[in-house]
Amino acid sequence: MNTDHHTHFNTYIKPFAEYPVLQQRVLSVLQAIPSEVQRDFLDDPRFNVAIDNYEPGKGWSLWMPTPGLDGNSTRCVVLRPKLNNASEQFANYVIAHEFAHAFLRNGGWREITDVEEAADALAASWGFHRMDAAVGHSEARSAASAVCAHKKGRRSPGPAALYPTQSSRKNLRT
Questions:
Q1: What's the mean pLDDT when you consider all of the chain?
Q2: pLDDT digit string (tens) for 14-65?
Q3: How would residue 97 be classed by pLDDT, with cut points 50, 70 and 90?
Q4: What is the spatial distance between Cα 157 and Cα 113, in angstroms, rounded to a whole number?
Q5: Residue 151: Cβ-neighbour burial (10 angstroms; 0-12, 13-18, 19+)
Q6: What residues does each domain of the chain span?
Q7: Could you give the CA distance from residue 18 to residue 80 in angstroms, rounded to a whole number?
Q8: How far apart are CA 141 and CA 13, in angstroms?
Q9: Nearest CA-CA partner of 168 in 102, 121, 117, 97
Q10: Using CA atoms, how far apart are residues 105 and 83, in angstroms rounded to an integer?
């Protein structure tokens, strides 16, 4: 990890300043993922990481750039504060799973077309495995989400050579 990457990762971990354990977990996962994935995030001005600011009775807000005129998507990984107190293994899995969604632009990976299974498989290839079969996608979704916004009518380009996508879709949390 060079200093330049660490400086850029500061942008991604800054939203978690009030949650120091979660902040360190996000940094640890970012440092552990492959360099081509790091580079994909760092070279994309439309990639962002945010903390979920949901308040009962008020809702939540998320600021992210609009998709580019060139059809490039906007990607944002939104993590919930509850990951600060979750087990380290589970939290790291969820964080890596959401980064996998962002990298795959909510598409498939290799022969896997289901976007949740694809994100699980990619995160596992990075060394972040689900704790056990009882920890399902619904529990992980309650802890985080990856949002990809696309220019209407255009598919966002995926990391074609290394991780070809089979599909692309919006995954907006309600």
A1: 76
A2: 999 999 999 999 999 999 999 999 999 999 888 889 999 877 888 767 776 6
A3: very high
A4: 16
A5: middle
A6: 3-149
A7: 12
A8: 20
A9: 102
A10: 22
Q: Per-residue pLDDT averaged across 61-75, rounded?
A: 72
Cα angle value 119/125/130 (rounded, 5°): 60
Which residues have a Cβ under 8 Å from the Cβ of 89 and sit 6 or more positions away? 131
What is the token pair recorded at 42? 């760092």
Residue whose structure tokens are 């330049």: 4
Instruction: Look up the pTM and report it.
Output: 0.73
b/e 5-28 (16+ beta carbons within 10 angstroms → b): beeebeebbebbeebeebbebbbe
Buried b (16+ CB within 10 A) or exposed e, 40-59: bbbeeebbbbbbbeeeeeee
Return the sign of the alpha-carbon dihedral for residues 43, 53, 129, 4. Answer: positive
